[in-house]
Amino acid sequence: MANEQGPVIRDEDWYARELGPGTAFTGYTFYDTDWTEVVDEGAVFDACTFSGVRFNASRHTDAAFTNCVFRGCVFFDTRFERCKLVGSRFERSTTGLLEVTGGDWSFTGFRGADLRKAAFDGVRLREADLTGARLEGARLVGCDLSGAALHGARLKGADLRGSDLSSLDPRTVEAAGARIDLEQAAVIATALGYQVG
Description:
The protein has one helix at 182-191, and strands spanning 8-10, 18-19, 24-26, 29-31, 39-41, 44-46, 49-51, 59-61, 64-66, 69-71, 79-81, 89-91, 99-101, 119-121, 139-141. By secondary structure, the protein is mainly β.
């Protein structure tokens, strides 16, 4: 859990700031900070809380946000590449055009999150909580979703090809028009009690 009693950074303008591998914050709380167009290459944030932070058009590469809470944040056109967000939680945040490539997002909390049009490519999302998440039109390609909670997720029109769907119960999601491959079709048919082959 993030420590909200730690140092606080409030109302700061970090526009286009560059963060490198030597940047590390533990237990900080960031309130209403502008991270628009921040370039983050290897910074580490652990057990931090981000409240009302604008991450618009920011780029994060090989960075870590572990066990963090993102509350009421905006991730418009934000990109994460090979980042580690294990155990982090997203609450009431908007993610228009969020793009995630590679990295470990295991145990992340996206319960009820609006992830429409977000793109996750080759991301480890083991045991992520996607309960009730809105994923219409989202891209979840080649992702490890083993053990993920997907009950009530809306997957209409989502591209799920190449992802591990072993924990998906097709009776508990809305998935009309979702794109899957033949191997995934067999997994889903088996989950519904069919014998394949």
